[in-house]
Design goal:
There is one protein chain. With 182 residues, the chain is mostly beta strands. Helix content is 5%, strand content 41%. It is built from 2 helices and 13 strands. A 6-stranded antiparallel sheet has the order 1-2-10-7-12-5, with no helix packed on it. A 5-stranded antiparallel sheet has the order 9-8-11-6-13, with no helix packed on it. It has a two-stranded antiparallel sheet with strand order 3-4. Strand 1 and strand 2 form a beta hairpin. The N and C termini lie far apart (42 Å).
């Protein structure tokens, strides 16, 4: 039994797909194996698990990160409904610094997204009642939590919806991101 890893255009970020073993009852699939992640040089995600329930379509959560020395890798999957999941490479020495990738995660497609340390992460719900499950490589440290604005012009993220969204004050009001080189 194996997990399928497909690298995105951002080095270190992967779409993770369970390999299904089907029979007349349905299917069985492994969704996580620390050994398989480690074999690819990825940080295992097993310290904390979080669940986000979102009542309304077009809810935006993010773009969040946890800074070093408490940076976290994440494995994110949608367990109910669907979301447009986005990551931004914020690693200053990366060839893809400031670039983003978006992918639809849904209960139907059962894909997950591996988010390495040094990335911002967020999503926009595509359906009412969307639920997102996160596995984290490290523990939450409030003093290290940060974020960038979901619609920051520095990144030009192409969201499914830009009006009629539901978002909290903190995520809506992060300051513009203006590092050298972007």
């Amino acid at each position: 039994m194996a997990i399928i890893f497909r690298e995105t255009k951002l080095a270190g970020a992967y779409v993770v797909e369970p390999e299904r073993f089907e029979d007349p009852r349905g299917f069985f699939a492994r969704t996580y194996s620390g050994r398989e992640f480690e074999a690819r040089g990825l940080k295992p995600c097993a310290a904390d698990c979080n669940l986000s329930f979102n009542a309304r379509r077009h809810t935006v959560r993010g773009m969040h990160f946890q800074a070093a020395p408490h940076a976290q890798a994440k494995l994110v999957r949608c367990t109910a409904g669907a979301v447009y999941d986005v990551v931004i490479d914020l690693r200053p020495r990366s060839e893809t610094f400031g670039e983003w990738v978006g992918i639809e995660l849904s209960a139907e497609n059962r894909l997950a997204l591996y988010v390495p340390e040094g990335f911002a992460h967020g999503f926009q719900t595509l359906a009412d009642g969307a639920e997102v499950f996160y596995q984290m490589s490290g523990y939450y440290v409030p003093e290290s939590a940060g974020g960038v604005r979901w619609d920051d012009p520095a990144f030009r993220i192409e969201w499914p919806a830009t009006s009629g969204i539901t978002i909290n004050e903190r995520d809506r009001t992060y300051p513009d991101f203006r590092p050298a080189g972007l």
